[in-house]
């Protein structure tokens, strides 16, 4: 039995089958069985939310953007979608997580200078269901402990979990998008002033399970999370629509500008304007639709960007048709724009110590 919370309702116990039926019926929920303490100190952080200066590090960001490519994401996503399903309770879900963990390690060894490798840690965050989350950290060079988090969820699901779920867009696309950003950063010998972390969460499709567990652990140790950015579905450009970045404005840090500094969603828009070749558009999920909501629940500033306006996003998700080759609407060049955004987010907020 699992403790499930639907927004606006008291938590209630449900079986795993009842959870599956809820998801099939479009009922959105948090599974809070193991994270009932999440958000217990959120009110303390909401009293002193950070703001951010306008982006001003283009001379550092732009050379890294030139190192981004669609080659790695294509190769990685082809393999990542070859698992029958990445469902978090399945054996192949565990195998796909281990493959991703090994791929992060391989990329680190191949592309990070040895002097940088000693400042990088790659760890599994264990979960009871077997598929673990992955946390890769580039340590900061200063005593400033404000951590920047760039994340995606690694699991996939069919509407009925026993069926195949290649999960190319949801969220294979986001997973390899941020992996490419990480590769470009470390190949540039990126030494942030503040720690920068890349997270690949398990079990998002089970009710934001992985990200809730990680956020609860960070909250319990009073971690100083400066900014969190989620990448969930970055590949789809619906035929006949404008290519754009969907900036989610619900369940995120969407406060309005009140001074010369920016709040996080406004800051993210500025990054799109400055570094991407496509525009942004405001859009809403209408519910806590991805892992950014777990961090918001803990009182940390979080943002979420998606492939388009929510209504124009990929309709093949949670099915056997969520594949790379299903349509020309699946675009690796579109994914590359989101890799640019993640690179800019890391450098502009993490800083770069060129003296180290």
Automatic annotation (TrEMBL):
Keywords: Aminopeptidase, Hydrolase, Metal-binding, Protease, Signal, Zinc. Its cofactor is Zn(2+). The keyword Secreted does not apply. One of its GO terms (molecular function) is metal ion binding. GO terms for biological process: proteolysis. InterPro entries: M28_fam (IPR045175), Peptidase_M28 (IPR007484). Its EC number is 3.4.-.-. The keyword Coiled coil does not apply. Pfam families: Peptidase_M28. Residues 134-336 form the Peptidase M28 domain. Belongs to the peptidase M28 family. M28E subfamily. PANTHER family: AMINOPEPTIDASE YDR415C-RELATED (PTHR12147:SF56), METALLOPEPTIDASE M28 FAMILY MEMBER (PTHR12147). This is Peptide hydrolase. It comes from Phlebiopsis gigantea (strain 11061_1 CR5-6) (White-rot fungus).
